[in-house]
Amino acid sequence: MALGATQRLHDGVAAVETMTRFALAVLALASGVYTYLGARSILDGSPTAVFFAAVIYSASVSVGIYAFWSYMARFYPHVTTRAGRSAMLGVMAIGAAMILAMSSWLNAAALAGSAAVEQHLSETVEDYTADLDRAHQNALAAQSLLPDIQRASERFSQLAGVERQSGSLTGTTGSGSVVQLLSQMSSQMKSLQANISASREQVEDLFTQGQKRLETMRSLVSAPGTIEPRADQFSTEAVALTGVITSLAQTSIAPSIRRAADDLSLGFIAPVPDGGAADLINRQNQVMDTVRTSVTAQSKALAKAADEILTRPPVQERRFVPLSSAEAVLHYAQDFIPAWAGAISIDLLPGVMVFILATVHGAIRRQEENLPFAERITAAELLRALEVQRAVTASGVNVEQTIAKTEAEDKTSAPRPESASELEPNNITAIDLKSRSRDRSHEDR
Fold it and tell me: pTM of the predicted model, to two decimals?
């Protein structure tokens, strides 16, 4: 039974030898094709130079992969020593690393390079969208001060009107110094209000331009066709969008509000009281002091609000870095694990066949070691032994006497083994000349 199983393993190895060579050739050719596609995407120069360079490189990769795995399939299964197996495994690991370096990443670039570049463009669009929103929010932050400024302007204007009509502040009607001061403060607030409103229109216009740029960039990411021209146009749009974001950061009205708040307090100039009586002049001075106090409080509130806006982190200028398909598939490798698995499997699948052959040959060796020598010897080896015996007999040497003498010398020189387990198997096949001569005589009859 063991002999039959061993023979079937031998027959199986012989049967799959052609298939193994064919599989190695197909896998090496497939790896070479994808290596050509990946190499062509990263080479620069004229189309002819790129074509020949990619073909030569891919052909070298195919030949190298086929030769390497052919050597491993031929030699590794027959190396039986532990040191030899370790050395062969080390060589296999080094060769596999070289194959990964020169072929697998280009295979992955050919399989998922376009998708990786689109992934890069998509993430860049998201980053630019976040930058545009932050710049828009920073630019519009000063708009939150507009209601407070409007209320202050209206309050000063109403006080001036009331003072002019009824003299509720000084007790005297008419357009005197107090009315002039209140009208002056109202005018300054209205001027600041107009500046904020004008900046709002500019900010909205820039934000609309940025949104249009983002829409174009998103359409380029999802558009059909080759990725290279789309990536070039995407880069142009990214540069234009960067300019829009920078303009938004520069149109913030917060610094102007901060300076205007300081001017309200530091640049406050009260007019000279113009009352005809001392009592009226005294009341005008009191009202103007009250207005000064109110203006100072308003100035501090505006300055504090402007400082909070100015302390916001500014939007850092972003520079778009285009990536080739090979670079993108490395940068976003975690997102394209199936493509990497396929690219690596094409190159390293022959290693599985090598280990299968090594396992089969190891099983054959173990089964043959358990067989007696008579069952392990082949017919050709037996015929060769008979020819040697005839030649020795023809030369006048008695084979039986020589063997008996040799066994006697071995018994006298070698110590007797202590147990039967120490006996070594005798692999010499004894050939009985007398019995064979009888068989020949019977055959002649």
Answer: 0.63
